Amino acid sequence: xxxxxxxxxxxxxxxxxxxxxxxxxxxxxxxxxxxxxxxxxxxxxxxxxxxxxxxxxxxxxxxxxxxxxxxxxxxxxxxxxxxxxxxxxxxxxxxxxxxxxxxxxxxxxxxxxxxxxxxxxxxxxxxxxxxxxxxxxxxxxxxxxxxxxxxxxxxxxxxxxxxxxxxxxxxxxxxxxxxxxxxxxxxxxxxxxxxxxxxxxxxxxxxxxxxxxxxxxxxxxxxxxxxxxxxxxxxxxxxxxxxxxxxxxxxxxxxxxxxxxxxxxxxxxxxxxxxxxxxxxxxxxxxxxxxxxxxxxxxxxxxxxxxxxxxxxxxxxxxxxxxxxxxxxxxxxxxxxxxxxxxxxxxxxxxxxxxxxxxxxxxxxxxxxxxxxxxxxxxxxxxxxxxx
Length: 388
Ligand SMILES: Cc1ncc(COP(=O)(O)O)c(C=O)c1O
Description:
Low-confidence stretches: 376-388
Shape: elongated
Distance between the termini: 15 Å
Number of helices: 11
Strand order of the largest sheet: 2-3-4-5-6-7-8-9
Mean pLDDT: 95
Bound molecules: pyridoxal-5'-phosphate
Helix content: 25-40%
C-alpha cells in the first residue's frame, strides 16, 4: 500500500493465472485473448496482461489505442487487438506501435492501409461483422466487399474475421445460435472470396463457456479471467477464483445512542445503541452512493456489518452494533475475511447492475496492491513471488 490512506484494492495474480490457465484448457484448441481493457477491468492492465500471457493467453485485447500504447510502453510485445476500429487520425500510431486493429468501414481500412504503406510495412487487420449486437461492425452483406478492400490493399493483410455476441450470458440460446449461423455464412462467403482469415473469433467469456461452436480460433475472455461468472446462467462451468478484493482500515470509532441518525440525509437511524466505525473509502473510489440504502454489508472481524446510511465521497459509516472495533482494524468491502465473503456479484445484485460495472468503477485513487507472481508454469510447482 502506498501513501497514508488505509484503503486499497488487492489483486491476486495467482488467481488470474489460475483462471486464465483453466480457460485455455476449456477453449483449446482455440487460443485465448485476455481482455485487459479498462485497466484490466480495474485490476491493473500491465501486471494482469503479463500474468495472462504467462498462463497461456496469446493475445491481449483493449478498447482504445491509448490502452494498447500502455501495454507496448511496458514492453509487452504480444499481439494486441483493438476491439473497435481506431479513429483515422490514430492510424500512424497503430502502425508504429504494432497494434492490430478491428476494422469495419471503408474509411478506416483506407486510413490504416495508407499509414501502413507509407511506413513500408504490412499491417494485419481483423474485419468485424455485426451479426446482431448492433454496436460496431459492418453489415453481413458488406463483409465480402470490405474483405476484398483489405486484401487488395498493399499495406494490409486480412488476418481475422470477428463478431460479438449480445446475449450469450442468457438462458435462451435462440438469438445466439442465430448470430452464429449468420457468422458461419459470412465466414463461408469471405473464405470463398479471399481465402479463410487465419484468426476467426466470436466468443466473449459466456460464448466461450456456453457455446463450443463459438470458439473458432480464438476466444476473447474478460470477466472470467478475473474470477467472476458472466451471469448466474453461465456459472460454475470452470473453477474460477476472484482476483480482486477491496480493503480499508477503520479510521474513527464512536458510540451512539438509540435514535441517532447518521450520514447525509440522516436516513439510517439506530434502533439500539451502536458502535459506528468510519472507513475511508467512498463514492469517489467507485463505492456507489446508494450501496448502504441497498442493504450492503462490509466485513469487520469476520462479521457482516451494515453500511450505515449514505456512502459519502471519501468515507462510509459501518454499524458494528455491540461488536468490538478499533481504529486500524481491517475492513473488507469486497473479498473474504474469516469465513465471510462479499462478492462483486452481490453488490451488483443489490444495485441492479452487473459485476463488470462494480469492478471497473473502482477508481484510480485506490492504490492497487498486486500479490502473487502469476509467473509459474506449473500450478503446483515453483513459487510465484512478485516479479514486477
Ligand atoms: C468485443 C469484446 N470482446 C470480448 C469482451 C470480453 O467480454 P467478457 O468480459 O464478457 O468475457 C468484451 C467485453 O466487453 C468485448 O467488448
